[in-house]
Amino acid sequence: MLQSMQSYMVLERLGEGAHGVVVRAKELATGRIVALKKVSVRPHQILPVMVFREIKALQHLDHPNVVTLEHVFTHGSAFVMCFEYAERDLADLLKSSRTPMPEPHVKTWSHMLLSGVAHLHEHSILHRDLKPANLLITLAGQLKITDFGQARLFDASVSPTSYPMSHQVATRWYRAPELLYGARYYTEAVDLWAVGAIIGELLHHAPLFPGQNDIDQLYVVLSSLGTPSDDEWPTMRQLPDFHKIHFPEFPKRSVEDLIPDASPSALDLVGQFLVYDGAKRTSAVDALKHHYFQVAPFPVDVTVSPLDLNFASTAAPSD
Ligand code: AMP
To answer: Which residues are noted in the entry as ATP-binding (predicted)?
Structure first.
C-alpha cells in the first residue's frame, strides 16, 4: 500500500535533526510505532543533499544493526522518511548510568556496532558521523546505526578515494586525525577511528577525546596518544593543514594510559582502531573476530528500560 501522512497518527515530537523534525507516530493499519522525519522543501527548491544521501545510503542497506528506512513519501511540500522506531540511543544509555557499563554489555554493543559498520563498508558506504547519539537502541536490545545525512558511497577498489571529499565531517570528539589535519582524500578508516573512540568511551564511561574546538581536538588526541612519528604515519606531512598547526612534542602514550581499568583484550581491540595511520586501522570485519569477543565475560542479551532518561550529563558537540 502507498503510504501517506493519513497512514499515521502523530504522537509526539522526538527531536530535530539538521534537516527535519522527527516525530513518533502510530501506523494506523498495524498499530506499530514508527519515527517520521519530515523535511520541508520550499517550492522549486531541490531536496537537500543530506536528505538525498540518507535515502540513497539506506536504500542499499539491510541489516539488523542499521536502522530500517521503511517508506519515503511526500506530504504537501515536505518529504517524509518513515523509520523503524527505537526508544533509546547509546548516548543516553551512557548518561543514565552513573557507573561504568558492565563488560558483557560493552561487548554486546561493540559487537553490534561492528556488525553494522562491517555491513556499511561491505556496501561501500562511509557513514562519516558515527557517535553514541547516532546509535539507536531498541527496548529489545538491538543497536541500530542511524543518521546517514553525511554518508557517502566510496569506491573500495581505490584507496584512498580518487575524488576529494569534505573534511568537515564527523562530530568533533569522534573525528579521525586525518580529518583534523584537513584530509580531502580518505577511506572508511575515518569510521573506524570513530568506532575506537566509541568503544573506548563505553569502557571508560567518559569520552576519550573531548576537544572544545577543532584545534583543541587535535591537541587532545596528540597529547593523549603522543606525537606520531613519520614511521608511524608516513603520509601525515602531506595533509593540507599539517604545516599550519604546531604543537609541542608529546610523549608516546598507550590506550592503557587512557582507559586504565579496561581488560588487556579490550585495550588491544581499541588500540587497533586508535592508530594514527588510517591504512593501519583494523577493519570492522576483522575486529569481529578479535579475541575480545571470544573470551569471558561473553556478550549478553541486554534489554533496555525506557524509563531512566532524565540524568544530566555532558553531550558531544553537534557539529
Ligand atoms: P536525526 O535527524 O536523525 O538527527 O534525528 C533527530 C532526533 O530524532 C534524534 O536525536 C532522535 O532523538 C530522534 N530520532 C531519529 N530517528 C529516530 C528513530 N528511528 N527512533 C527514535 N527516535 C529517533
So the answer is: 37
